[in-house]
Amino acid sequence: MKKIALLPLAALLATTFAAQAETTETENQNLTQNFTYVAGGLQVSTYNHDLPSSWNSTTDSTVGMYLRGSWNFKDNFFVETRGDATVKDDLTVSHSLLGLGYYQPINDNFTVYGLAGFSTIEMKWDINNFGSDINTSVSADDTALTGEIGARYQVMEQWTVEPAVRLAGYDETMYELRLGNNFKVSEHVSVEANLQHRAIDNLKEMSYQIGARYSF
Q: For residue 8, what are the CA distances in angstroms to 28, 76, 103, 107, 130?
């Protein structure tokens, strides 16, 4: 799983100092309005057609991890970074994002937000040629401006849903639909169960994430 280490670990580093920077009380912490947190966990992705995963095999699924971090640095403004990488055999598929956002509470149970920034996508193959000691690395990547609109709605005291839509202007425009589910288990810790759909050109990806979030 060494390839997973290539994830943008800034998702964790960007918020390691947030606990000291934030002085607001958390006794009545509202997840719909808390944009200072770190999160991560397992990700499984499936694709609408096979991808080459090694010299002589293909796959329609990959497994890896995701990381996410956000820091509400002033008023309703926040910076967010995300990364996910999944692998199968010699293939690594990764996405990353860095953006600036603004959120607006509508009421105690409903908040909307917008985010703009940069995102990257990469498909990389580390191929061992016919069992030799010579490895060949082949990759295809792209960087683009990206924009997202989303919302958070507290369905129940312990359950918050987080739908979002994102576009990225790669050579072929990518769209992403997400539905996050956040289940609060303590004052600072919650469990995430997320669905994510991406489409770029004729490639479609469906991702399933299960992980944990720590809110400062």
A: 32, 25, 24, 34, 31
